[in-house]
Design a protein that fits this description.
- It contains two helices and 33 strands.
- It binds beta-L-arabinofuranose.
- The site of beta-L-arabinofuranose (FUB) has 13 residues, from strand 1 and strand 15.
């Protein structure tokens, strides 16, 4: 009995110690977060800063998902510039939304004629593949058409806001790929940027601004109030917001949410309630090699104040606590990662997304894994290896923690020849962070598609 009490106390501490970590993605540089919930999963769409960029070199968008806010499954790139025949560059900040079982992804790009515009791509699944819905732009004003944000109101009316340094909106039609042209200028309404709505300009902008509004609007409704959260205050940016009782304003400036922190000159909001918690996504320069053009998406949990205003939110490296446990007895994609060191992900038509570029000493951490009272007896993994393959050490709670098993990966005859291999496991009970640590000789050891435990 005493032994049992001690054991449950220890498990409670382990469970409590598990933490998500920022940045959310470490395998590449991400920016401009746009969360979306579909069914019971939170999907996170991001932009993608190319390695070593010295300006915004962005060619595709990425997608990740979670059900526990700690472990993120990499779905690769659901959309890239290549899907649009009429554009040449700048896969900047977009947002995806579901309507009637279809997924609409609004993205800004530079057209082949050099003018910015917003396009819309559509898919049957939240993870794509998305294709160009129109074969041409959805909308352009020629005046800074970037950063679209989309929201469907309770009455079914959808709105698309966007713009830097102007702020525009259109009322989307039910089909989500056209808009009401009877309002504004051929359908496009320009929002008056007044000091009352967006705060007095602070003179810090790289070009003159009357207000703090810069770019990156995030538009949504909460408890009957409409929120426009936006990147503000010139470069480096902070995040400010305005509220309104109406979807189209007038807006009232409410202040700063995230102060300027870190060394990325831009920031970008993405806000979502999920499983009874409120989450604020943003980006900074936190990954090694990070900067204004090599950014990383992060997330913080927050609580609205009783009057619906935002608290101040600070950037952390901890991120939110997990809100669920991961079941290791079902197939888990190897690219489901709370934190990693030294691995990359890639995708092909054969197995989809998988973990690659795995060298000696690399590891993947998976948070809050629930092995249960009886624990696990066997570990299976789908691997591909051209060499001896090294080993996947299974460790609990740290990369040097208790070893519960080690899969000695045998050659499968090539890095594209997939085989399921297994090893015995002992000592995995209760809730733990699982470390999959890769050991072996020089060079790439293996490719890794999925894993699971058996009881
Ligand atoms: O990522 C490129 C641009 O930087 C975005 O469109 C802006 O919101 C800013 O984050």
């Amino acid at each position: 009995m005493k032994h049992q009490l001690l054991l449950s106390a220890a498990l409670a501490v382990v469970s409590f110690k598990c933490h998500a970590l920022n940045p959310v993605v470490q395998t590449l540089y991400t920016a401009d977060p746009a969360p979306m919930i579909y069914k019971d999963t939170l999907y996170l769409y991001t932009g993608h800063d190319e390695d070593k960029s010295k300006r915004y070199v962005m060619k595709d968008w990425r997608c990740y998902s979670t059900t526990d806010m700690a472990n993120w499954t990499d779905h690769g790139s659901p959309l890239s510039l290549k899907a649009f025949s009429w554009v040449k560059s700048d896969a900047w900040a977009g947002q995806c939304i579901e309507r009637n079982g279809k997924f609409f992804y609004y993205v800004p790009m530079i057209q082949t004629n050099g003018v910015g515009a917003i396009g819309v791509a559509v898919a049957d699944s939240p993870t794509g593949p998305f294709h160009d819905a129109l074969g041409h732009r959805l909308v352009t004003t020629g005046k800074g058409d970037i950063d679209p944000t989309v929201f469907i109101d309770d009455d079914g009316q959808a709105y698309l806001y966007w713009g830097n340094p102007h702020l525009f909106y259109v009322k989307l039609n039910q089909d989500m790929i056209s808009f009401d042209t009877t309002i504004g200028n051929q359908g496009v309404v320009e929002v008056p940027l007044t000091v009352d709505s967006f705060g007095r300009g602070n003179g810090r902008s790289w070009c003159p601004r009357d207000t703090l509004y810069e770019e990156g609007p995030w538009f949504y409704k909460q408890n009957g109030w409409y929120y426009l959260v936006y990147a503000a205050s010139g470069l480096p940016e902070n995040i400010c917001y305005a509220t309104s009782p109406n979807a189209t304003g007038p807006w009232t400036f409410k202040g700063v949410i995230i102060p300027t922190q870190g060394h990325s000159s831009t920031d970008h909001p993405g806000i979502m309630d999920y499983q009874g918690h409120s989450y604020f996504f943003y980006h900074n320069d936190a990954l090694p090699g990070g900067g204004s053009y090599t950014r990383s998406v992060c997330v913080e949990e927050f609580k609205y104040n009783a009057d619906g205003t935002f608290p101040t939110i600070n950037m952390t490296t901890n991120g939110p606590a997990p809100i669920g446990h991961l079941n290791p007895f079902v197939r888990t994609e190897a690219e489901t990662i709370a934190w990693e060191s030294g691995v990359k992900t890639t995708q092909n038509g054969d197995v989809g997304v998988y973990v690659t570029d795995i060298h000696n000493g690399a590891y993947i951490k998976v948070c809050a894994v629930e092995f249960g009272d009886k624990g696990a007896a066997k570990f299976l993994a789908s691997v591909a290896s051209a060499t001896k393959g090294g080993a996947i050490e299974l460790r609990l709670d740290s990369k040097t923690g208790p070893l519960i098993g080690a899969l000695k990966v045998k050659s499968t005859g090539g890095l594209d020849k997939w085989k399921t291999q297994s090893c015995r496991v002992k000592g995995a009970q209760g809730v733990h962070d699982l470390y999959l640590k890769f050991t072996g000789g020089d060079g790439p050891l293996l490719n890794f598609d999925w894993w699971k435990f058996e009881k």
